[in-house]
Each structure stands twice: as structure tokens, then as C-alpha cells.
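re: that complex we talked abt at group meeting.

here r the seqs, copy pasted straight from the sheet so there may be weird spacing, ignore it
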Amino acid sequence: MDSNLGKRQHAFSNLMLSALMSASLVSVAADENTTSPAQEKKPAAKPVETAPPAQTRRPREKSFPTIASGEWTGPKLSDGQPDVSGFWSNTIGNHGNLTDPQGGVIGEARRTPLGPRDQRAPSRVSDPADGQFPFQPWALAKVKEFQVGFHNPTYPGHVEPNARCAPGGVPKSLYWHGYDILQYPGYVVFVFDNGSRIIHLDESKPHLPEKLKLWNGDSRGHWEGNTLVVDVSNHNGKALFGRSGEFISENATIKEKYIFANDRSRYNYVGTFTDPTVYTRPFTITIPAIKYTRAEETDGWNLEARWAKHAGKTQILEHDERICHENNGGFGIGSAQR
Amino acid sequence: MNTAAIKNPSWFKKIGLTLLLLTHVFAFSLVTSNADAHDATKIPRLANGKPDFSGIWQTTSAADYDLEPHSNRKDAPPGPGIVEGGEIPYLPKALEQRKKNFENRATDDPALKGFTLGVPRGIYYPEPFQIFQRARDLNIVHQFGHSVRTIHTNNTEHPEDPNDWWLGDSRGKWEGDTLVVDVKHFNDKTWLDRSGNFHSDALQVVERWKFLDPNTIEYKATLTDAQVFSKPWNISVILHRHREKNFQLIEDYRYTLDYDQYYPPKPDQK
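got the structure back, here u go
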């Protein structure tokens, strides 16, 4: 299935290359929610072993419940952590557009007109209340430039780094493909399709020296009831927030809350970003997520795991290796230089 | 008491016997406390009693420079190799390919592109990896590329219709305190070391993980690949636990280094 991912990436990469070569292909820049003609030309070499006969696809949510921070009454692991291990995915859309997650990629030709704004999922920016990023003027100008350059790149920085399989970083990894949450005494580990993130629950462990800058930053966290509270430093700011180009600098600090429902069916990510280099004030991003429990619900993007083969009667979900860069096609200025 | 002892030789005997016994007990306790350090019961264990390999590990061997015995080179320290019997039993045609790989190692080693190292190379590559372990599986996070390999230990089997994976498909079983892992369904895109030792997609690796003491793992693997090797061959390497205070993995996504200078936008950038 990861070769499928690779093929998807490859198709997307070819699109990016095309976009680099020719502005005329703007209209086919694929929204990952749809299947582009280029993707259709590249079927998986092997049928997906786990594709069940009756496959259903979960629709995107247009709204989502608030989950209050509070007591954890669900199952716990032996070290006392709420047991939230499993396969998770965001519910409202991917990284195409942060402030209008179901509004398509900014500047992309649409097949169907958009309806009224209130019939689509809200902005991922939950504070400020207007749903807009509180950019400083220079930064807003850079974002606008990116939104044009994304479709017709004239500078290497116009290529969305995730298209090169760079790690999605914080917070984008949480609204890219589905991902695993693994838990061990002292750790919560996120395994993404490109990159992984280790959250240390031992907060007496100091952060890495400031000079070290990382795609996923350096995370320390602890549980407060149903909420995983995480402090992120050492972020390199290189992973853009999405195809709409929003970003933070390497001076940003991030305070995250992962607020889990006690029935373990979903959680809301609430991340507060403070970055005086780029923004006029702190802002908050909210990302709803659901737990994935049925292989039948695979959609090859957010929900992709399969039933393990074994002699027992219980169904066990498992996921293939998550590989991106190695399966990615040659594209873009970076690879052309190789 | 002395008088009594002199008067009654049996007293003397008793004291002597007691002393003898005490000495024995003392000597035995020395032996046992020494044995305790190597006692299998002292290794870390999960709640289910299985050895717990959780921790950050790394080899000090020069294996990744060349699995076979080699003198020093400009790009490698000398090493006795980690192949049982010394040499890898290549088929003649494969040996030619290996020689070509060696000549082109400065450009052709997939690790230079930051590619996932594969199995078993990720284990003896000279960067740390962290084992996260629970009853159902072990997840190995390699600092290099932060790639994650899952070894399933929940009695699940290799999938029926597999792909060719970079890390293969790993299914483990416990033989006493030894974790035995069967790994197959690889692609042919990884090398076994930076000197050009290689394999095909027919590679099968059987690993044996065992504690020598709480801070040392003996890692052995048997490599079978009928397209490349004339017979199965074995490697053995020792892994040491990182015990430095606050030691942690630091992500190493080096494949981003060619372009990461372009991000994020900066105020003074045109």
C-alpha cells in the first residue's frame, strides 16, 4: 500500500514538475480529495490486498463537536496514560486550504462553484475569531506570493515542501495522511507517512540545544486527564502549513492540547502558536480527528490500514511501512540538481 | 567457652564446621552475586515476562563500512567484518555486481540519498535507533531518516499478497528470551553496507535478538537470497544501550538538505 502512496506521490510529483514547466496545467493541480486524470493513469501495480469488496468512504465533516478538557474515564495503559493508541485521521479536509478547508486550493480552477461559506467546515484558525492568520504585512505578502507561485513556480520555495516528501511538521502532519499514535511508558509516538514524531513525557528532560532546528521540533508533554499537553521547541519553520502557504519561523513556540473524547472515538487538536517574527499575536489552530477502526472504510488517503492475517478470531488492524521520499518520483528543482 | 571447647573436642568440631559452612555460604554468595549480573531474570521485562528491549541502541562496530574483513581505506576504518566465516558467499555474477558497487560506492550508496537503510543495515548503521516495545509489537525508530519498522509479535503472519517493501515485513516469535524475527518481502533498492554489498528482492532475513546483559544486545541474522548468494550466511553484532543522561534521538531527514534553505520565507528575501 505504501507503493500506492509512492505512486500517488509520484503522480503528484509529476504534476508539480508539470507546474514548474508550464502554467497551462494549473487547472489539474490535484486536490487530494479527488482523483486527477494523472492519478488514474497510474493504477497500483498490484491490487490492494486488503481492499474489501464492500468499501465505504467516510464523508468529510462540515462541523465537529467541541471536546472539553477534563477527567479521563476511558481505559488506561499500565503506566497510567489514557489508552489512545491506534490509527487516526483528520475529518474535514487535508492541507489544501487552511482557512477554508473545504474550499479547494486557492487560485485553482473549480469544476463546481462553491456554495455559501457557512455550508463548509470552518477555518482551522479558531482564534482570532475571524478565522484569519494574524500575519505581519511582510509575511502576508509572502503567503500571497506563494499562493500564485504554487501554481506557476518561479522560485524553489514555491514548491510545497511536502510535495518533495519533506516531513509535514507541526501541525500539518495531523491533516495530511492518516497516522498512527503509539504509546509507551514515557512516550507518545506519532508515525506519519513522511516523518515521525516522538513526544517525551519526561518533562525533566531538557529540550535540545536551541541551535538544533528540526522539521517536527522537539516535544515534551504530559497528560492532564483526557488531554495530552505538549510543548514544542526547536522547530525549523520549514514545513509550510499547506498549499495555501502559511508558515511559522524558527523562532516559534507551540503549545498543543490533544483533547480526547472518553469513548476514544475522536480528539481535537488545539495548538497555540506564538511567533513574533511572523505574526502580530498568537493564534490557535484546531484540528478534529477520528479514530479509524474498520479496514472496510479505507479510502487510500486518510484511512488506510488492513486486517492482519492470523489464525485468531479477533480482527487486528495493521499498517504497512510508511515511506515517502524513497518512492517519490524525480521532480522539482531540488532533485533536478542531484 | 574456650575451656569448654578444649575440654570438649566436639564443640571445637562444631565451631569448625560452622566456620566452614559460613565460608562456603560466603563464597557461594560471591558466586551467585556475580552470576546475578548475568542472570536472565535481571534483564528488563515487559509485564508479560518477555524481555523488554526498549531503549536507544547503537553498534560500535565498523560493520556498515564493510561487512567483510577490510583494511583501512580513505573512506573507511579497518574492520574484521561481522560475517561468520569472513566472506559473503556471492554467486559469480553477483560478485561482479558487488565489485561494481564497490567502485561506485561514493555515488551509488542509497544511504547517500537519505533512503531508508533496510534490514539488517539499519541495525548496524552508525546512528542510534530507538526500540519502542509493547506486547503486540516492537517499533524501531531509526534516527537516520526517522524511518519506522514494526516487528509484529502478536502471532500475525506475513500478508498473503505482499508488496516489496523497503524494510520488508517483520514477524517475530519468542524462543525463550530470544526474539526471532522472520523478515521478507523486500525490494532490491537497499544495500547491506556502504561498500556495495547488496541483495535482491528475494532476500529473507532471520534475526535473533538476545540480551547479553541489561545494557547489551547480541544481534544475529541469517541472510538468504538465492538470486545473489550461493548459500545462507550469518552476521553477528553487539548493540550497546545509550546511557548518556537525557540522550534522545534527533531527527535526521537528510534528504531535505538539498532544498531546505528555501524555507520558510524571510522578511529580507526577494
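couple things i noticed - The longest strand of chain A covers residues 283-292. Chain A has four helices and 13 strands.
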